[in-house]
Amino acid sequence: MEALTVYMTGPQCGKCRMTKMMLDSKGIPYVEVNITEHPEAREYVTEELGYTVAPVVVVDDDDHWCDLRPDQIERVAAHFAA
Prior knowledge:
Blueprint: E1 4-8, H1 14-26, E2 30-34, H2 39-48, E3 56-60, E4 63-66, H3 70-81
Parallel strand pairs: 1-2
Antiparallel strand pairs: 1-3, 3-4
Helix pairs in contact: 1-3
């Protein structure tokens, strides 16, 4: 598994900050993309993935979620630990 991509709305987003903190605490690598600065990224998460809530975490084309999801972070952390 490579680095995740975390689509965020910026530092004012509490759930985005918490998601990053949880990923960091588990040692999960990620690339951060601010969708307010990258319209193509905003279109991807809203139009292609269908999400309307940030953050959006993409593991791969078939594995992604939105919002603060400690359960999903734990699931992904298990794969990085293996």
